[in-house]
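#onboarding

Welcome to the new folks! Below is a worked example of what a typical request in this channel looks like: someone posts a single protein sequence, and someone else replies with the predicted structure as tokens. Don't worry about understanding the tokens yet, we'll cover that in week two.

Example request:
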Amino acid sequence: MDRLTRKELKTDRFRVEVQHGVEYVNEHRRQLVRWGSIAGAALVIILVGYIYMQHQHTVRQVQLAAAFRMQNANVGPAASEFMVTYPTQAEKDKAVNKAFTEIATKYSGSEEGAVAEYFLAGNAADKGNLPEAERRFKTVVDSGNSAYASLAKLALAQIYASTGKLAEGEKLIRSVIDKPSVLISKEQATIALARLIAPSKPQEARKLLEPLRANERSPVSRAALTALSDIQQPK
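Example response:
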């Protein structure tokens, strides 16, 4: 199914939802009259508002998916008319930045806005623009979305560590350990903290990692063992 068809289906779904809303109001017109004009108007506003929000959520997801396709696009000659490609890396970077920026700005405060902001921060960090990355990661941390805030805290901690603000980075990761999210578990945050403090506090880092070596979740145990092997033995 091509992109145009999916878009048409989403539009049709919105129309059906609106139609259902109108039918509901028509079927309950007598009750609305009995409740009075104010209560009836409030009910209509709430109903239409709910339908609109559901539609907007779909719109945001479609735009975010399109931005991800740009992010994952190839650079060079197009291998297929169905693949998104860009002639140069500069053109790709410009298109990706524009797409994510529009979502982050237009849908600030939404889940999709937080995701877009996070990827803009990551792209800035990859290009060495740490001030912009720090600013954008902070925006995600303050977004109110605990899941993406936890991801942003770990990334922001790495930036702080690279700029000599180790104590601030450690504080951020410890806050994730205290309140893990669906995206970052307590064990993952603990491993991240151990790696962060390992250069300056190797003994404390090993102390954090040792209990995770035999964790029943194999990805956690493997990550802990790898982190332990990377820590140099004290001289």
